[in-house]
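Per reviewer request, we include the raw input and output of the structure prediction for the construct analysed in the revised manuscript.
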Amino acid sequence: MARLLDLPNELLLSILAELAHTPQELLSLPLLCHRLHFLALPMYFTSMGMGEPTQRAIVQMSNGNSRDSLDALQMASFITSIDNLCCSLPRNGPFEAAETVRHVARVSKLIHKLEFVHEVTIVWAPPNELMQSFEADKDTIACRPLALEMEKLLNCVLEHGCTSLTLQGGMFFPISPRTMRFGTIDAVRTATSKILPTALSLGRNENWIDAQIERFTVEETATLKFDLNGKPSYLSRLNINSSMFLLPPCINWTLSALRSSAISSVSLCGIFLPTKMWAVLLPLIASIIPNLAELSLADLHGLSGTDILVFLTRLPLLKSLAIGYTEYSRQVQSSCPDSAPTPKLENLEHLHAPSTFIVHFLKKKSTLPNLRTLCITPRKLILGYRGLRHIRQFITDIARRLEKHRISPEVTLEMRCGQDMDRDLTADIVEPLGEELARSLRMVTRLVVFLELKPSKMSIAEMGTLARWINRFPGLMYVCLRFDLDNAVEDGVMMDHVRTLSEQNPQVKSFHLNNEAYDPDALLLSSL
């Protein structure tokens, strides 16, 4: 080892680069001496795709005793803060409370080491494992240490200055049948005493509050408590992508975090709850954060369109609102009956929603006087020619209402094309537009197309059909195609597709394929 350390840093780095394909061996070197600590660890982080771990660190923890990226971050003496940290619990193997407790404690240890961490994402379980652990027969005694360790971690994250927290996946705790139905539960007052206003400034009496949260039972598992040891919370954005954090024993911590922080942005996504429980939760959340400025809702199973509208009536200060479709079988959340309330969102500037919600917002007198951008989301279950006909109908309706209310936002249309894209678009192209529809299509300035076909499977003829269909939007300035890229797709294939689009749509000034931008003028010059 002494001879190795006699070498200059340039040669040492060349030798370490040969170990980049075996990160476990590379990670054993920093413990040997101070010099290798500062040479091997940066090489390890680079090999794991973390060139600047102080800015963004992505950790996939592993089972067993082998070291992983979390250990590397822990041992790196030169890392005292992280702007954006994402930690994912191990993906493989059955749920084991003791092993999960160990991994959660490891994350807590890393957070304790740091002076601050601004954005934190914790992936408790990947999406495909979400329902596997949704069981009611788990050992609550074994889960108690896990609840306590999770409480320590979440509180520690906020103590270290976290401003944006994302909680994703996982369902570690048993679901009591009482949680899923109405009933009188005496333990509710104790369980929620720390999240309710002492003076009941909401204008509701104690019986009403108990009725709203009567599902939140105190399980045998320890309830997660919000306690920052007297330190202020700087949390401004909370993204809940996990049903676990809207159910006992985690919900008390979630609601307390909302109440004790200056929350300006909330996202609820990928959550499975009974409809009646949504009716209990949403009014309470709205009462805790009535000054919310940004809200995103997507893939919320069991939540009806009417409940969403009722929720929005309690958030009049929203400036940005995104509503995604939740479609499964033949049930959709996008239904907005005439009897549903129409939220008055006078401060709203950015709206991203299904056409049914947009039409409902624009009923009668306008409730969106300051709207600047409008994005219409696509239906997942309406594809083909039927989907294109659906687009014709709602585009005309929305354009008519915008003109009536004298609102002129920047309009983005999102749409989906299935496997039979060429046939469906060809059938739609031969249909006459009509004067009103042609005028309505002119208002769309941005188009986003989600494609099921892979780029290498699309012929020039199919792309030409898509280009002709896009040409029906004379006001377009931006076009984005989104699809799953082939691993072996060549840049030339992508450029050919963009060139085909730009030749037939000279009015479009910007093309994007997924996240890659293409200059249409440069492509046209290169083809000459």
